[in-house]
Design goal:
It is built from 10 helices and 11 strands. By secondary structure, it is of the alpha/beta class. It has helices spanning 26-35, 49-56, 60-63, 87-91, 93-109, 138-151, 153-165, 193-198, 218-222, 234-245; strands at residues 4-12, 39-44, 66-68, 74-77, 80-84, 120-122, 127-129, 170-175, 179-184, 203-208, 226-230. β8 (170-175) and β9 (179-184) form a beta hairpin. The chain folds into 2 domains: 2-72 and 187-245, HAD superfamily/HAD-like (Rossmann fold); 85-182, Hypothetical Protein, Haloacid Dehalogenase-like Hydrolase, Chain: A, domain 2, CATH 3.30.1240. GO terms for molecular function: metal ion binding; phosphomannomutase activity. It catalyses: alpha-D-mannose 1-phosphate = D-mannose 6-phosphate. Homodimer. InterPro entries: HAD-like_sf, HAD-SF_hydro_IIB, HAD_sf, PMM, PMM_cap.
Length: 249
């Protein structure tokens, strides 16, 4: 079939194209190379481009037609950086300091089995909060996820943040296994849609795993401009991509 330049298959990275914080498999890479001849392909993730390169590989930007690290506030067309916006320019230093101080105080008061380091990570698109600390090991990450599923550590923090900072037009969502993403309203993954629309792409199919309310794929999954497809991991992504590609004429 000739390539459909009105259609784009848009992928979340962590938990969709790769296992959480792990590297992409040959099965998924082969699928991406296969469908690229049929439709545009793009990725969107909350992390910066360096973390996505760690997972997808050094050719990450060459594999995809469009790349949207940091939810699309960084916009790549191939390897070319087209646009970059920064959250600090929206929040300002005073509000940012107030937010950081509140979060550090909150972290000091919660009791969880272990804590490591890097509890707050500034990104251009968001502030990433991590109760256990992002420097935890894979095993510690999984243990925290089990603990959080029972004790709702992150959900309770989201509720507290919403009460304290919701008036500043900030939004909070639980991301991956260990963290919370904080960003201006509208700076979730739906932010990247505007870039695809400017390319005259009419049909956007989004594949993601965290599609439940409060998950960081939820807003784009339910957006009316997108056909949302929930997946349960990389192998399921491959299966559902090949099912969906049959519908594209």
């Amino acid at each position: 079939m000739a390539r459909d330049t009105k259609t784009c298959f848009l992928f979340d990275v962590d938990g969709t194209l790769t296992p959480s914080r792990q590297k992409i498999t040959p099965e998924v890479l082969n699928m991406l190379k296969d469908i690229k001849s049929k439709v545009y392909i793009a990725f969107v993730g909350g992390s910066d481009i360096n973390k996505q390169i760690e997972q997808v590989g050094d050719d990450c930007l060459k594999i995809f037609d469009f790349g949207f690290p940091e939810n699309g506030v960084a916009f790549y067309e191939g390897t070319n950086l087209v646009e970059q916006t920064k959250i600090i320019d929206v929040l300002g230093e005073e509000l940012y300091k107030k937010f950081v101080n509140y979060c550090l105080s909150y972290f000091s008061k919660i009791d969880i089995p272990i804590k490591r380091g890097t509890f707050i990570e500034y990104r251009n698109s968001m502030i990433n909060l991590c109760p256990i600390g992002r420097s935890c090991s894979k095993e510690e990450r999984k243990e925290f996820k089990k603990f959080d599923d029972v004790h709702l550590v992150r959900q309770k923090m989201v509720d507290a943040l919403q009460k304290e900072f919701g008036k500043y037009n900030l939004q909070f969502s639980i991301g991956g296994e260990i963290s919370i993403d904080c960003f201006p309203k509208g700076w979730d993954k739906t932010y990247c849609i505007q870039h695809l629309e400017k390319k005259n792409i009419k049909n956007i199919y989004f594949f993601g795993d965290m599609t439940h309310p409060g998950g960081n794929d939820y807003e784009i999954f339910v957006d009316k401009r997108v056909v949302g497809i929930k997946v349960e991991g990389p192998s399921d992504t491959v299966k559902k991509v090949y099912e969906k590609i049959k519908e594209v004429k």
